[in-house]
Amino acid sequence: MRTTTTFEWEPADLPDQHGRTVVVTGATSGLGLVVATALAAAGAQVVAAVRDLDKAVRVLPAGLEARLVDTSSVASVTAFARQLAADGLVLDALVNNAGASFATYERTEEGVERTWATNVVGPAVLADAVLPLLGGPAPRVVLVGSNFSQRTARVPDPAGPGDAGQYRQLATYTDSKTAAAALAVDLGERLAVQGSPIRSVIAHPGVAATGMNGQAETLAQRLGGAVARLLARTAEDGARSTLWAATAPDVEQGVFVGPALRRSDRRLHVVPVQGPAADRAVRRAVRDHVERVTVGITG
Q1: Is 198 within 8 Å of 140 (Cβ atoms)?
Q2: pLDDT at residue 177 tops 70
Q3: How far apart are CA 138 and CA 247, in angstroms?
Q4: Bridge-partner residues for 260, per DSSP?
Q5: What angle do CA 115, 179, 23 make, to 5 degrees?
């Protein structure tokens, strides 16, 4: 397996996608909209998994199918996957793109802190639920991660923040993306042990100008978001790594692909997963927690 690879890749290099079926979550804005639109333009059958069907009608290209799912809800994610199966869809790829960062502490109706529900639990449940539907010559699950998880030494609490007093927006977001990356590595290892052809890979957009930069609610957070936008790549630029990860025929298991911090550097860098996400104990702890909180919900 390669350890580090750097290369140039542009959306113009996207191979023909006719005959492939791809689910993209969070497809009505930012990276998800770019990825879904580009894949559909290249010929793929794209299922846009969205929270707002009215918005999907407004922003998605004509003919691109949208289906309702709330990725922060285990029940919604499970129902979505079951309907895909009932409709007989065979997927070539799942792009777990939907993500969020919230300024205030809140739990979902299922009792999970909503950052972790959206970024960790929902994507993990969806990935496992669609495994039986993945086929084709190079099936895969792509997690849209964050480079924060590569750069942090913080070991996330598998359960996330327990109350409002423990909640810090950036720390919670970073921990959630580290936990999600850990689960993506764990999924890849489980699939490899089973001899499955399905691959699990993580893509990150670098610092990208997406709707997430506008989710801050305090003045300091809004100022931080404004600075981030000045340094950020466009959503189109940031989406390149996800498009490559979703379509490259030779994508490897368990890698982390994305651009450098400098916007002038348009190369993609494929590197091993680093930090706490690469730790077996962390992966096991997060996986155990997800299994505990989903008991009785997935059914």
Answers
A1: yes
A2: yes
A3: 9
A4: none
A5: 75
Please check whether residue 96 is in contact with residue 126, taking contact to mean a CB–CB distance below 8 angstroms: yes
| Distance separating alpha carbons of residues 255 and 203, to the nearest angstrom | 8
Could you identify the residue written with the tokens 């008991």?
Answer: 295
Enclosing H/E stretch for 147: none
pLDDT at 233 over 80: no
The two tokens of residue 75 are: 């029940």
Confidence of residue 219 (pLDDT cuts 50, 70, 90): very low
Q: What angle do CA 35, 261, 225 make, to 5 degrees?
A: 75
Tally: H helices and E strands in the chain = 11, 9
State the Cα–Cα distance between residues 6 and 190, nearest whole angstrom.
27
Q: Is the dihedral of CA 190, 77, 172, 34 positive or negative?
A: positive
